[in-house]
């Protein structure tokens, strides 16, 4: 099964996200990633969904979502035709003797250290899923204390936009 990324434009009002996630849950579709936020239009919210499934399952998801009254438009974003990013904040153990190693890794992955104390560092990294997964795997050797990731956000390449 492959991951499919959907850009869903919806009316910006309470309960829409809950109705979308509820519909997918009832259809036994797992949401791998979800991110929602304002668009250039104040009354429109863009929800980026990552769902796993074959072409038939994806087609069903799109048909079901299209039936929801607050859904304006749905577009599948192909990985090779879009720019995708996630953000992660990672709290890692940072013993004094190993801090320079961690700083070097942060530099190699083009991440940022955003907080430091006697025992830990918080690192911010922006990138695609593979980059963040690779960085997390390297940091496992140092002891990840806490990790939080955003859902994927994506825009199609080129001049065309997902519009109403």
UniProtKB/TrEMBL annotation:
It holds the Pfam family ALS_ss_C. Residues 5-80 form the ACT domain. GO terms for molecular function: acetolactate synthase activity; acetolactate synthase regulator activity. It catalyses: 2 pyruvate + H(+) = (2S)-2-acetolactate + CO2. The keyword Transferase applies. NCBIfam families: acolac_sm, PRK11895.1. Pathway: Amino-acid biosynthesis; L-valine biosynthesis; L-valine from pyruvate: step 1/4; Amino-acid biosynthesis; L-isoleucine biosynthesis; L-isoleucine from 2-oxobutanoate: step 1/4. PROSITE patterns: ACT. Catalyzes the conversion of 2 pyruvate molecules into acetolactate in the first common step of the biosynthetic pathway of the branched-amino acids such as leucine, isoleucine, and valine. PANTHER family: ACETOLACTATE SYNTHASE SMALL SUBUNIT, ACETOLACTATE SYNTHASE SMALL SUBUNIT 1, CHLOROPLASTIC. Keywords: Amino-acid biosynthesis, Branched-chain amino acid biosynthesis, Transferase. Belongs to the acetolactate synthase small subunit family. Its EC number is 2.2.1.6. InterPro entries: Acetalactate_synth_ssu, Acetolactate_synth/TF_NikR_C, Acetolactate_synth_ssu_C, ACT-like_dom_sf, ACT_dom, AHAS_ACT, AHAS_small-like_ACT. GO terms for cellular component: cytosol. This is Acetolactate synthase small subunit. Dimer of large and small chains. Transmembrane segments: none annotated. GO terms for biological process: isoleucine biosynthetic process; L-valine biosynthetic process. CDD domains: ACT_AHAS (cd04878). It is an enzyme of class 2 (transferase).
């Amino acid at each position: 099964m492959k991951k499919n990324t959907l850009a869903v434009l919806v009316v910006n009002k309470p309960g829409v996200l809950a109705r979308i996630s509820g519909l997918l849950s009832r259809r036994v579709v797992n949401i791998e990633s979800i991110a929602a936020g304002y668009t250039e239009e104040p009354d429109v919210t863009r929800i980026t969904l990552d769902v796993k499934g074959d072409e038939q399952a994806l087609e069903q998801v799109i048909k079901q979502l299209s039936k929801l009254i607050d859904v304006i438009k749905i577009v599948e974003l192909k990985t090779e035709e879009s720019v995708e990013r996630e953000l992660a904040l990672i709290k890692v153990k940072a013993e004094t003797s190993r801090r320079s190693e961690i700083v070097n890794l942060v530099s190699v992955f083009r991440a940022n250290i955003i907080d430091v104390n006697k025992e830990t560092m918080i690192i911010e990294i922006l990138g695609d899923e593979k980059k963040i997964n690779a960085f997390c795997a390297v940091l496992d050797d140092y002891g990840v204390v806490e990790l939080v990731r955003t859902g994927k956000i994506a825009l199609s390449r080129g001049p065309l936009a997902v519009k109403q």
